[in-house]
Design a protein that fits this description.
single chain, 59 residues, mainly alpha, 83% helix
Length: 59
């Protein structure tokens, strides 16, 4: 799609590691995953109550 291969992804990973540091990367990935999950649930047409209920079950 964008022409990203393994070397490009490694370079991006190293740049992120330098900018955010090793302590922040897992936190950044976690928040990005939650954002993507929320977007998918929102685009499927679930209302807020269903989303809150599913979030409470995962915690």
């Amino acid at each position: 799609m964008f022409g990203f291969g393994l070397p490009e992804l490694i370079v991006i990973g190293v740049i992120l590691l330098v900018i955010f540091g090793p302590g922040k990367l897992p936190e950044l990935g976690n928040s990005l995953g939650k954002a993507i999950k929320g977007f998918k649930e929102g685009s499927e047409g679930k209302d807020e109550k269903q989303i809150k209920d599913s979030a409470e079950k995962t915690e």
